[in-house]
């Protein structure tokens, strides 16, 4: 059997993660345009989809080399079956899609992103997975900072109301804000859990500070709120490791503070939103979302096909744009985007996966009492926050993290151990206790 050197797999997964978290190809090929430009739809540019397909093909091949291990890891994972069923719906949605060719291309890319997440979550120990994610995020942080300082033509927005906001290697400031929000809290967890030592930990600390700066420099309201919410989530997750009495006290205090803050925000919404240059109309979303629901009601069960709703002239989105009176590029909601793409049948599968993942992830935090076990919970919170007012669910980086969190919430007990055989006997008690807790 062909054996791939382990260090090559390490290099491959780090490159792949960085590429999908923050490569600058989209920004550079758009000439630094001050808007979101989707290079995947530009027929004249094959670089981004070409590299993506090469990465997906490599990940799929590596999965085939260890198919027995994959089956043993995923056999009892209910999320896996649901994810596969969802992919089947996506692929077959070409049969009823408003744009079959677009659905076919994008469906293949989504499947490839799923395979990459499978490869990451099943081929390495959980600590290794966290190291690879941290390395990729740190590289992205440094590149975003370099683009803002040394290449401001690309790294900073210059058009319209967003002029002066940093965007790093992305085409819009909101993407930088949300990505750096996740990076900041994720790296804090990595430091807290002592995943790295020595100079590597110093690099993590430096990257954490820079990513926090980039959240502010992006002037992204979503990024700031996401940073606060995920930090609060991390505190709550750590409270779950306390004794029952202490846990109840801490979580009750957090709920009280969060409830008070919510009431205050609702009572002063206009004043608070005006600080960030926003209004209670949510930048036109108050008109867009009802129009999206109207379009969903016309094809409620299977939708318009994956990525088949939004398109050029003649697409179903034309009617929605006529209703709202402006050229909406997407639904500005991950949930609505899913309903438009695959209807209630496909979206229900994703919702069930999300619920199971959330329950299992919280159980693991309580059971394992390991700080780094909070990472899947943070990913779920990030997913929910980033898709409240933006359509990022099917973005390759967000989808990859969603599938990774889903698989990791089950496989953490099996992958706590490093790959070294001598570590296995030392941690058998941990593995057995986790298995007993899951069966209970």
Q: List how many beta strands DSSP finds.
A: 0
Shape: globular
Q: Mind summarizing the main beta sheet?
A: none
Radius of gyration: 22 Å
Order of helices and strands: HHHHHHHHHHHHHHHHHHHH
Q: Beta-strand percentage?
A: under 5%
**What is the subunit organization of this protein?**
single chain
Stretches with pLDDT under 50, minimum 5 residues = 35-44, 264-269, 414-440
Distance between the termini: 39 Å
Determine the structural class based on helices, strands and strand pairing.
Answer: mainly alpha
When the domains are counted, the total is: 1
Helix content: over 70%
Written account of the structure:
This protein is mostly helical and 440 residues long. It has one domain. The chain is built from 20 helices and no strands. Helix 7 crosses helix 9 (173-192), helix 7 (126-150) packs across helix 10 (198-217) and helix 14 packs across helix 16. The protein is globular. The two termini are 39 Å apart. Mean pLDDT is 80; it is low at 35-44, 264-269 and 414-440.
């Amino acid at each position: 059997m062909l054996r791939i050197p382990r260090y090559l797999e390490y290099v491959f997964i780090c490159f792949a993660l960085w590429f999908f978290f923050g490569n600058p190809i989209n920004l550079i090929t758009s000439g630094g345009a001050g808007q979101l430009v989707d290079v995947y739809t530009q027929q004249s540019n094959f670089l981004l989809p070409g590299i993506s397909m090469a990465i997906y093909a490599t990940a799929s091949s590596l999965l085939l080399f260890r198919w027995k291990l994959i089956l043993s890891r995923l056999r009892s994972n209910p999320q896996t079956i649901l994810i596969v069923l969802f992919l089947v719906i996506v692929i077959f949605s070409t049969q009823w899609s408003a744009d079959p060719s677009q659905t076919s291309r994008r469906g293949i890319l989504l499947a490839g992103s799923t395979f990459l997440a499978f490869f990451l979550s099943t081929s390495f120990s959980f600590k290794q997975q966290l190291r690879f994610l941290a390395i990729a995020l740190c590289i992205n942080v440094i590149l975003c900072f370099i683009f803002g300082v040394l290449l401001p033509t690309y790294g900073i927005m210059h058009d319209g109301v967003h002029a002066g906001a940093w965007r790093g290697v992305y085409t819009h400031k909101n993407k930088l804000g949300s990505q750096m929000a996740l990076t900041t809290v994720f790296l804090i967890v990595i430091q807290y859990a002592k995943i790295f030592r020595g100079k590597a930990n110093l690099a993590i600390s430096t990257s954490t500070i820079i990513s926090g700066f980039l959240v502010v420099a992006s002037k992204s309201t979503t990024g700031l709120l996401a940073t606060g919410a995920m930090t609060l989530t991390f505190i709550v997750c750590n409270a779950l490791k306390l004794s029952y009495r202490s846990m109840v006290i801490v979580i009750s205090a957090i709920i009280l503070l969060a409830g008070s803050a919510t009431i205050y925000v609702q009572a002063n919404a206009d004043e608070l939103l005006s600080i960030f240059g926003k209004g209670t109309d949510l930048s036109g979303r108050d008109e867009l979302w009802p129009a999206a629901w109207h379009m969903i009601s016309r094809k409620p069960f299977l939708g318009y096909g994956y990525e088949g709703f939004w398109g050029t002239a003649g697409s179903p989105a034309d009617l929605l744009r006529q209703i709202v009176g402006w050229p909406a590029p997407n639904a500005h909601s991950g949930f609505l985007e899913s309903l438009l793409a695959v209807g209630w049948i496909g979206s229900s599968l994703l919702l069930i996966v999300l619920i199971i993942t959330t329950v299992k992830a919280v159980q693991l935090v309580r059971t394992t009492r390991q700080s780094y076990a909070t990472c899947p919970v943070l990913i779920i919170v990030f997913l929910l926050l980033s898709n409240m007012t933006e359509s990022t669910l099917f973005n390759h980086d967000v989808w990859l993290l969603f599938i990774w969190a889903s698989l990791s919430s089950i496989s953490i007990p099996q992958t706590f151990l490093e790959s070294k055989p001598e570590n296995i006997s030392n941690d058998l008690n941990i593995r057995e206790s986790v298995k007993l807790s899951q069966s209970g």
